[in-house]
Amino acid sequence: DSLLQEMYLDKLLLSCLGLVVRYGVSLWPHSGQGSPPLYGDYEAQRHWQEVTVNIPIKEWYVNTTDNDLLYWGLDYPPLTAYHSYMMGMVGQKLNSSYVELHSSRGMQTELHKLFMRVTVIASDMLVLFPAIFLFSNKNYLTPVTLLAYPGLILIDHGHFQYNNISLGLFLAAVAFILRGRQLLGSVAFVCAINYKQMELYHALPFFFYLLGQCARMRTYGAKISQLIKIGLTVILSFGLIWVPFILLGQDSVLQVVTRIFPFSRGLFEDKVSNFWCALDVVVKLKQQMSVPDLAKLCLGTTFTLSLPSNIHLLFSPDHKSFLLSLVNTSLVFFLFSFQVHEKSILLAAIPVALLTFCDLDDSMSTVIPWFLTISTFSMLPLLIKDGLLIPTISLSIMYLTIAINFDQFNPVQDKYQKRTQSPIPKRPPTCFHTFLKVCMFLSLAGCVVLTILSTTYPPPSKYPYLWPLAVSVYSAAHFIFFGLYFHYVQFTSGESEQFISQKKIN
Fold this sequence. Notes:
By secondary structure, the chain is mainly α.
């Protein structure tokens, strides 16, 4: 009983610390603050509440007089719309002006901002935090890494979005899969995809892992039975979520699909840190190829480069390979897929944070915080634009301090408890590990230099986007290196039955 109380107290303390940090970031500006006429993502989320509360569901994704799709039209799947509707109903009860049709556009009063910020914190408490603590291990390294990751905090509580819901559902799906609850994991992942379509970044590893697990069953009957169960679970989950639009007819379903996959927008937005944006410095593909041809190029490249990791997973469907394949596939999607946003790097960062849950080589203690810091840095132009430079620097320093000194935070009783056996000698750092550490510190020094240049030295008038582009190319080069490294780790690390830190999921 005392052990259980201590565990709950630890989780409560970590949650409170996480909430304090998030509340502090929420006091800073949000995207588009005081920037009419379109404002930013904050206004987009508020506008979706306005639309879903005031017009019938059949018009949520349709351009009408009351729903101008050019003004932040809904472009996420139905669960986002349902969530917006629920938040809108709560807002309407508190103050009807928050979601008044047309007249509420651009609302940014202090009380309304407080309401909106609280909805994100509530989403953390109800969805993200419970999912994070499904990965509790003895020293809480994984929960601490996920709770302290600066990128997600800054985008959700600073910039303003609800990535915590889709990523929380994703984390829950992974946790269920690791526990062998494949049907629950399938339901959770379907919900994640139906909240944000970018969760497709993670779809291939789920598919190949579950297929590989089915193939490993002893009898053909068991294989086919499990495959049918998973397939029916996925179909029924999709059907339940989409049922209002299915009942409205085929045109309604197609309209939603058209909105959530807007191929007309182009290859990438702003200066995203992926391969295509970096290549654009020397080869102007957007000027040389049509949008449909670019989409085909991205599809072919992304699918082809995703196959090695997922084929390996199919034939070695252990938990460690599953987590590494999630990292590798999401990185390939971020680097090479069509219509990528800078914020999509979060979809690769969260699986990387989950690698703290594995028994991998010592180099991961350097590579994981290095990657997570670079992923936050890659969004620097957006965060500077939002007025979030100081929180970005503060949270990055805080996270790196925790990550580098995490061993120092272990409970004192663990160090002095009675030994039942001789301690395992600590391995000295290898030359490769030392080399990685040197590279990390040089890399972070480059981040500091680019941050100083971006904030203190105006770019030449001939190259107004010099610093955002420099950040983009610098970060993209890192992500390509990390992608190659994580593929190497997946292909060279043998299957280990004791893959989980402390060999147990609490």
